[in-house]
Design brief:
The chain is mainly alpha-helical. The protein has one domain (2-144): Lysozyme, CATH 1.10.530. The protein is 57% helix and 0% strand. Helix 1 (2-19) packs across helix 4 (90-108) and helix 3 packs across helix 4 (90-108). The longest helix has 19 residues, at 90-108. 35% of the residues are buried.
Length: 145
């Protein structure tokens, strides 16, 4: 049942992310989310853990991000509490990605693909960090290919 919920929520959030803003799509209609998965794991079904084993799954999610997403979910009455194992599931990762992005994008009033990519790479205030510029350039390249 847990994974069915994740699948349903993942499907809903995919539609939301893919259709929320034209800036999140490339010329062929692929979503920003899929560009992020390509950047983080090359769409590998079993990507190796990155950042010395701390980042796991298709979106290379850190434990601190799972903790933050659960905090955000609790504030919103979200029906799932995520586990570290959920980072390996594409749909559960999508749910976590959506919660994280929607929370910080609303907080900073910045729904741009650039802002979201930089926050994913550099944390909640990653959009202000020069260290996230190269990461954003790589994501942007994936969106414009």
């Amino acid at each position: 049942m847990r994974h069915l919920k994740g699948f349903v929520l993942g499907s809903i959030t995919t539609v939301m992310l893919m259709g929320a803003n034209e800036d999140h799509k490339d010329r062929e209609g692929r979503s920003f989310f899929w560009a992020m998965v390509q950047k983080e794991s090359s769409h590998s079904p079993n990507p190796p853990a990155g950042d010395e084993g701390k980042a796991v799954g298709p979106l290379q999610i850190w434990p601190i991000t799972v903790k933050d997403v659960n905090r955000i979910g609790k504030l919103r009455g979200w029906p799932i509490t995520y586990t570290l194992e959920d980072r390996n599931d594409l749909w559960m990762s999508l749910d976590m990605f959506y919660l994280y992005q929607s929370h910080y994008a609303a907080y900073y009033k910045d729904w741009s693909a650039e802002g979201m990519a930089k926050r994913w790479n550099g944390g909640p205030n990653g959009h202000t960090q020069a260290s996230t510029e190269e990461y954003w350039g790589e994501v942007e390249d994936l969106l414009t290919k």
